[in-house]
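Field reference: sequence -> structure
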Amino acid sequence: MNTPVSLEDLLAAVDWVSAGDSAAIECAAYVSNATGRVIWSGEGVDDELPEDIEDGTIYVAVPSKSEFELGRSLALSFVEAHLPHEYETVHQFFRKRGAYSHFKSLLERAGQLQAWHTYERNAIEEALLNWAQQHGLTCTA
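Structure field:
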């Protein structure tokens, strides 16, 4: 079908859905297969969802970042490329609770936090482009 959808809207929707992963609220977003419009759901959103929102032939649920499975492996790839001498330390972080907190603290101390955010965003964007293509959506700038 190749319905056009704004890449920026999709990225915002992924962030929205992902915020629900760690919050006490449910956040969801859907893309209309007919129009490419993103439909938001969650606390603070006043719009009512269409009655047929669960129909996968009409709407596609936007995934959260965790559904792209980029967490640990992405962090280790980044460290391997940017801080190879810290690889074993970061690998050990991911064997315990609080890994991301330790990881981001290390990145901040090393002056690599902004580089990580850019790296992570690029990986999410690439995964999202693949996801969109699989669902008959074409991302536009």
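Note: The longest strand covers residues 28-32.
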